[in-house]
Amino acid sequence: MNNPNKKRVFKKKVQEQIHIPELAEKIISGNRGYLSKGITLIESSAAHHREKANELMQELLTYTGNSIRLGITGVPGAGKSTWIEAFGKTAVSKGYKIAVLAVDPSSTLSGGSILGDKTRMEFLAHHPDVFIRPSPSSGTLGGVARMTRETILLCEAAGYDLILVETVGVGQSEGIVRGMTDFFLLLSLTGAGDELQGMKKGIMELVDAIVINKADGSNKDQAIQTMHDYNQILRFLTPATKDWKPRAYTCSALYNEGIEEIWDVINHFIDETKKNGEFDKRRSRQAVDWMNQLVQIRLNETFFDREKKILMKNLEKQVKQNEISATEAVDLLFKSNV
Ligand SMILES: Nc1nc2c(ncn2[C@@H]2O[C@H](COP(=O)(O)OP(=O)(O)OP(=O)(O)O)[C@@H](O)[C@H]2O)c(=O)[nH]1
Ligand SMILES: [Mg+2]
């Protein structure tokens, strides 16, 4: 007779018995199933899985780094997924193996993932040289950032040499994706006049190129005008990458126009920055920044256990009501051994 409990115990055992060197070997050999397993391990919040995940990252470290990491941002509906489909098609035809990842801030709230959707990426979704992984759907944005960074490394170890990371341009997530990519692209639309006024200067100083999408049909002339407007503004901003002047371009992701031009721009950027050392400098800087952020995360995790969090909430109330000073509250927090 089937005993469901027995089944459950068995499944649990299998999960516990992750043999990291074997998993690493399978990932390096390019096995997609094992790559997915590795990513699932990385996305697990269980403490013993964290240890295993760290072990896996260590095993794979020497196989990582050998890719172009490309970040793409833009408002919802700008055409990011359609653009990735068109750009990815070009990349695949040139022999690249590509991984498409997403950082979706809303997924941490809703538990669902709207990005990295395969419906707009029909061609890529069915191509053997393409690996698509939607945004992790749990945890804080910081947690999602960690998972995505580690997923990039896993994909590189599996032989993917072009990594695309998509994010909605609605705030913090752009900075996070900029911090893990070599080239950062803003996909924009025409009629962005208001946007240009108050803009969003912050985001324009993060980008290496701006692409006005949907430059087709009756929208084409306006797209060209918008491109000129953006170019005017870009001239006065601090570039994100030393010795690189970000420019605006137009394209139609839907009709596959202007994609090759952007391909050339990105390649030119990679060549130039590799030559002048900025490519490696950025990667090193990102690794050190990342280490610092991990220290913060680890400090937070180890310091703030459940009891400390409760104490913190109580102390916050007391500070708010002026019953104790902020300094006194911090003192109590550090002295307490709850
Ligand atoms: N005319 C035209 N329509 C486009 C173009 N690119 C995308 N679209 C359309 O714009 C809509 C949104 O495209 P998506 O690729 O889903 O946009 P997105 O930025 O990924 O959207 P979110 O994932 O929701 O943030 C779809 O209906 C596309 O068909 C283009 O170049 N020209
Ligand atoms: Mg999309």
Please characterize this protein's 3D structure.
This protein is α/β, with parallel strands linked by helices. The protein has three domains: 46 residues, Up-down Bundle (Single alpha-helices involved in coiled-coils or other helix-helix interfaces); 213 residues, P-loop containing nucleotide triphosphate hydrolases (Rossmann fold, 3-Layer(aba) Sandwich), CATH 3.40.50.300; 46 residues, no CATH class. 56% of the residues lie in helices and 11% in strands. It contains 16 helices and seven strands. Helix 3 packs antiparallel against helix 8. Magnesium ion binds next to helix 5. The site of magnesium ion has 4 residues, from helix 5.
Search tags:
single chain, 338 residues, alpha/beta, Single alpha-helices involved in coiled-coils or other helix-helix interfaces, Rossmann fold, 3 domains, 7-stranded parallel β-sheet, binds guanosine-5'-triphosphate, binds magnesium ion, hydrolase, hydrolase activity, P-loop_NTPase
